[in-house]
Design goal:
Helices cover 37% and strands 13% of the residues. With 161 residues, it is an alpha/beta fold. It has a domain of 89 residues: VSR Endonuclease (Endonuclease, Chain A, 3-Layer(aba) Sandwich), CATH 3.40.960. The chain has a 5-stranded mixed beta sheet with strand order 1-2-3-4-5, with helices on both faces.
């Protein structure tokens, strides 16, 4: 399929996509801060460069965009242009994510993954998500937490890769 915009326009559009300070990430940071959590951002010396690091709780939070991380949800659709490129690109992202989660777990970090789809749509309830994330962080127990459109996975539930 042919792209509907010229190469220069597409380049400008793609250059506007940022890896940090996305709307979903800012929302999660705001919700955590209002609940009294203090954190560090984009810590480069941890595997996967987590979006939010809460050293006091020995926890990290990744806020994943459903497209860029290939989430199996309604927000993700495979692009019809250059499908081989995108399958490889998103496949590499998924592999990178899995390695980062494993490395963080091996270092004793608790990991939360918040998917973009958990923060968008009519059924989205940021306050409920914040309460679940708050409970998980303060519990100190389960090593993994995942929130997605279907509703947040219960603490300790294995996530979808």
């Amino acid at each position: 399929m042919v792209d509907i915009v010229d190469a220069a326009t597409r380049s400008r559009m793609m250059s506007g996509i940022r890896a940090r300070n996305t709307k979903p990430e800012k929302l999660i940071r705001s919700l955590l801060h209002r609940r009294g959590f203090r954190f560090r951002l984009d810590v480069a010396d941890l595997p996967g460069r987590p979006d939010i690091v809460l050293p006091r709780h020995r926890a990290v939070v990744f806020v994943h965009g459903c497209f860029w991380h290939g989430h199996d949800c309604a927000l993700f659709k495979w692009p019809r242009t250059r499908p081989e490129f995108w399958r490889e690109k998103i496949g590499r992202n998924r592999t990178h994510d899995a390695r980062a989660l494993a490395a963080l777990a091996a270092q004793g970090w608790r990991v939360a993954v918040i998917w973009e789809c958990a923060l968008r749509g009519a059924q989205c309830d940021p306050q409920a998500l914040a309460a679940e994330l708050d409970a998980w962080l303060r519990s100190g127990a389960p090593t993994y937490f995942e929130a997605r459109a279907e509703r947040a996975a219960p603490p300790g539930a294995p996530g979808r890769q």
